[in-house]
Amino acid sequence: MSDQESENFWECKDLDEMSPAEWESLCDGCARCCMVKLEDEETASVDYTAVVCHLLDDHSCRCTRYLERHALVPDCVQLTPDNVLDFKWLPVSCAYRRIAEGRPLEPWHPLISKKPDSVHEAQISVQDKVVSELSVHENQLEDMIIKWVEY
Ligand code: SF4
Ligand code: SF4
Question: What is the pLDDT of residue 2?
Answer without folding.
Answer: 44
